[in-house]
Design goal:
The protein is an alpha/beta fold and about 375 residues long. The chain is about 40% helix and about 15% strand. The strands form 3 sheets. The protein has a 7-stranded mixed β-sheet, sandwiched between helices. It has a 4-stranded antiparallel β-sheet with strand order 9-10-13-12. Strands 1-11 form a two-stranded parallel sheet. The protein is globular and about 60 Å long. About 50% of the residues are buried.
Length: about 375
């Protein structure tokens, strides 16, 4: 029999994260591949979920999200960035940021429409664009400078451009886009009358004075931008799958129309818990960011000592390292062998690219959202492999 999977989804198959995590379990390796913390989030947040279950918040909540959470998200955007939102019409709770991304693309992209992205990119972007029948136009971010060519970006736009999909702080590179860079993107979006979908799930994880700037705060961008956030990333509860998308009412309504036929709604007790988490104030988030910064420094130092060339990330909880100094020319094969041979898992950066080439062939992403003893052990094993 022929492959029953629709043609546009055949290039995707099993995600690299599932594959690498399976290898980690098989070989009892230190898993620095998939980006999830190995400790739970703050006790106050976990306890809030328990209370919500006991309080009876266990049936379908409103499809758009529980009102207390939508209000908390609106307050967060206003207090932190000066973005004013009506929680009743401009905020939608989603089952994780990945659903928000897919719902936005399915709502806004017609077959043949073009979507501009930066490369490398979170792997769901390409799959979501294909699901919507769109055409991806990627612009590379260079390593280790992590910049982009402005002329090449401008050339990626056309009369078919419908959406610009950006990610800052950036997974996998750890780049935080500057206001100047975002202005270049915003100018092109306005010039071509394109919507912007801004994935900002790592907004609370910035280091060394780097400042996260939502593109919606730039002149003329609030009315054309959807902004995506994530409780899973912010509060280290990735398994809860609670995210959100916010922006102008017509765009949020469009996304809601699609989302209601995917998951309809998101777990009620977890929504109530996230609402309480967002009310805890910036102290909890700052403490978590400081802890991540220390672990970033530990991993960067260890990878450098092991012989990698490392780009020190300004944000997220990922470090990208070049294994070329170790003689690696094919990071995909090297990463597949690493769990068994060395007992460490990383992810080849080329899997985040639509057109991998020699510039990404030896790059590997490692996650530092792990306990310090595991990071030290991974560094010890990597240093000993030579």
């Amino acid at each position: 029999m022929s492959d029953p999977l629709v043609t546009r989804m055949r290039p995707y198959g099993q995600t690299v994260f599932s594959k690498m995590s399976a290898l980690a379990r098989q070989h009892d390796a230190v898993n620095l591949g998939q980006g999830f913390p190995d400790t739970d989030g703050p006790d106050e947040v976990l306890e809030a979920a328990r209370r919500a279950i006991t309080a009876g918040h266990n049936q379908y909540p409103p499809a758009q999200g529980v009102p207390t959470l939508r209000s908390a998200i609106a307050d967060h955007q206003r207090e932190r960035y000066g973005i004013d939102l009506d929680p009743g019409s401009q905020v939608l709770v989603t089952s994780g940021a990945t659903e928000a991304i897919a719902s936005a693309l399915l709502a806004l992209v017609e077959r043949g429409d073009e979507v501009v992205t930066f490369e490398p990119y979170y792997d769901s972007y390409a799959a979501g664009i294909s699901l919507a029948g769109g055409v991806q136009r990627s612009v590379p971010l260079t390593f280790p400078e992590l910049g982009f060519d402005r002329e090449r970006l401008a050339a990626a736009f056309s009369e078919r451009t419908k959406v610009v999909l950006i990610n800052t702080p950036h997974n996998p590179l750890g780049k935080v886009f500057t206001r100047e860079e975002l202005t270049v993107i915003a100018d092109l979006a306005r010039e071509h009358d394109a919507w912007v979908v801004s994935d900002e799930v790592y907004e609370h994880m910035t280091y060394d004075g780097a400042v996260h700037v939502p593109i919606a705060t730039l002149p003329g961008m609030a009315e054309r931008t959807l902004t995506i956030g994530s409780a899973g990333k912010a509060f280290s509860v990735t398994g809860w799958k609670v995210g959100w998308i916010s922006g102008p009412e017509p765009l949020v309504t469009a996304v809601t129309t699609v989302k209601q036929y995917l998951t309809f709604t998101t777990a009620s007790p977890l929504q109530h818990a996230v609402a309480e988490a967002l009310r805890l104030g910036p102290g909890v988030l700052e403490e978590m960011a400081a802890s991540l910064a220390a672990r970033r420094d530990l991993l960067v130092e260890g990878l450098t000592a092991a012989g990698f060339e490392v780009a020190v990330p300004q944000g997220t909880y990922f470090v990208v390292a070049d294994a070329a100094p170790l003689g690696v020319t094919d990071a995909v094969q090297w990463c597949l062998q690493l769990p068994e041979k060395v007992g460490v898992v990383g992810v080849p950066v080329s899997v985040f690219c639509s057109s991998p080439d020699e510039t990404t062939a030896s790059l590997v992403r490692f996650a530092f959202c792990k306990q310090e003893d595991k990071l030290r052990e991974a560094c010890r094993r990597l240093a000993a492999m030579g």
